[in-house]
C-alpha cells in the first residue's frame, strides 16, 4: 500500500509532492520547458501526462508508461476559426519534434464550436484554459500545470489532488460524460491495477 502514502494528506502537502513529481519527470519537464518557449496565451499542460506520471512514480514504472500523448491547452479568442487553431497545431508539431510523445494542442476558446458534433451535446463557452479543466469527465483528470510569470510551476486542480494520490477515478457529472469516464477508467486499470473506478 506504499503507493497510497500521500492519500488523505492536506491539499498543500499533496500539492508540493505533486509538483515535485511532475517537475522531476523527464517527459513532463521537457514538455513544460518547450511550451514556455512557444509563448501560447493562457496555456496549460493538462490531464494524463500529469496524473499518469504521478502513478508511474508511485508504482515504480518508467517515465511515459501508459501515456499516449501530452495534452496542451491554450486560450485565444481573437480568432476562433479552424484555420487559426490549425496553424498553431502545425507550428507546435514542429516545435515539439523529437519529444518522446506527441503533443496534442487545442484552443479552449473554440471547444463549444465542435463539441456538439463530436459528443452529441452542448458544452459551455469557456472563458479560460483553467475553466475547461473543470468539465473533464472525471474529477481525477482535472489537473493542469504551467509556469507563472516568476518562472514557478502553477497548479490548476479544481477538485484537489486526493483522487490522484488515492488511485481513484471519480466521475464529474457536470456534463453527461459517462461513456468517457468509464472508457478512461478501464484503460487506466489495465496500466495501473491499483486504481479504483467510482461508478457513474
Task: Describe, in plain words, how this protein is organized in 3D.
This protein has 200 residues and is α/β, with parallel strands linked by helices. It has one domain. It is built from eight helices and seven strands, in the order ααβαβαβααββαβαβ. The strands form two sheets. The protein has a five-stranded mixed beta sheet with strand order 3-2-1-4-5. Strands 6-7 form a two-stranded parallel sheet. The radius of gyration is 16 Å and the shape is globular. The mean pLDDT is 94.
Shape: globular
Series of H and E elements: HHEHEHEHHEEHEHE
**Considering DSSP H and I runs of 4 or more, what fraction of the residues is helical?**
40-55%
Number of helices: 8
Strand ordering within the main sheet = 3-2-1-4-5
Number of strands: 7
Q: What value does the Rg take, in angstroms?
A: 16 Å
Structural class: alpha/beta
Largest sheet, strands/sense/barrel? 5 strands, mixed
The average pLDDT value, as a whole number, equals 94
* N→C terminal distance: 26 Å
Question: Stretches where pLDDT falls below 50 for ≥5 residues?
Answer: none
The proportion of residues in beta strands is 5-15%
Structure summarized in a few sentences:
The chain has 200 residues and is an alpha/beta fold.
Amino acid at each position: 500500500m506504499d503507493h497510497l502514502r500521500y492519500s488523505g494528506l492536506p491539499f498543500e502537502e499533496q500539492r508540493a509532492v505533486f509538483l515535485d513529481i511532475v517537475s522531476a519527470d523527464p517527459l513532463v519537464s521537457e514538455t513544460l520547458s518547450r511550451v514556455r518557449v512557444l509563448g501560447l496565451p493562457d496555456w496549460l499542460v493538462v490531464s494524463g501526462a500529469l496524473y499518469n506520471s504521478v502513478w508511474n512514480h508511485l508504482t515504480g514504472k518508467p517515465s511515459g508508461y501508459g501515456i499516449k500523448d501530452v495534452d496542451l491547452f491554450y486560450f485565444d479568442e481573437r480568432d476562433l476559426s479552424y484555420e487559426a487553431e490549425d496553424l498553431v497545431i502545425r507550428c507546435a508539431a514542429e516545435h515539439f519534434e523529437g519529444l518522446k510523445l506527441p503533443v496534442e494542442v487545442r484552443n479552449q476558446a473554440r471547444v463549444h464550436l465542435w463539441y456538439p458534433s463530436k459528443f452529441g451535446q452542448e458544452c459551455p463557452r469557456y472563458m479560460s484554459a483553467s475553466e475547461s479543466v473543470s468539465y473533464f469527465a472525471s474529477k481525477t483528470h482535472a489537473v493542469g500545470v504551467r509556469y507563472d510569470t516568476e518562472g514557478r510551476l502553477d497548479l490548476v486542480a479544481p477538485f484537489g489532488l486526493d483522487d490522484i494520490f488515492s488511485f481513484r477515478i471519480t466521475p464529474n457529472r457536470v456534463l453527461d460524460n459517462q461513456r468517457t469516464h468509464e472508457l478512461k477508467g478501464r484503460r487506466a486499470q489495465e496500466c495501473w491495477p491499483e486504481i479504483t473506478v467510482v461508478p457513474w
